[in-house]
Amino acid sequence: MIRDYTLDAVELLAPTLLPYEVTNAIVQAVRQGRIEPQVGKEVLSTFQELAIPMAEPPFARVLEFAHRFDRSAYDAAHLALAEERETQFLTSDQRLYNAVRKDLAWVVRLLDYTSLLV
Asked: In the chain, is it the N or the C terminus that has fewer CB atoms within a 10 Å radius of its CB?
């Protein structure tokens, strides 16, 4: 998917909280010894270079999704933004996917993503 994005084959959009989520994932990976701090800096730099467009989600809908599916506000923000923009939401979070898949057909597992660049 990132390859498709960098080649302008797909558009991406994320809630404005995405940089915090990415940074936190890097912090956790360093703390757990899965990556070295320098690698974390490189990952963050690469992420920033992607310049993924971001937008504020509709917060009333974030609250509704969080309660309806017993998800965090962070997860619900992704759902609410995708719904508002009438687009698919790709996720690698299997628990999130399992919680919403019966009700939200536009949520797709990243594992099921098929590149447009075959």
From this structure: C
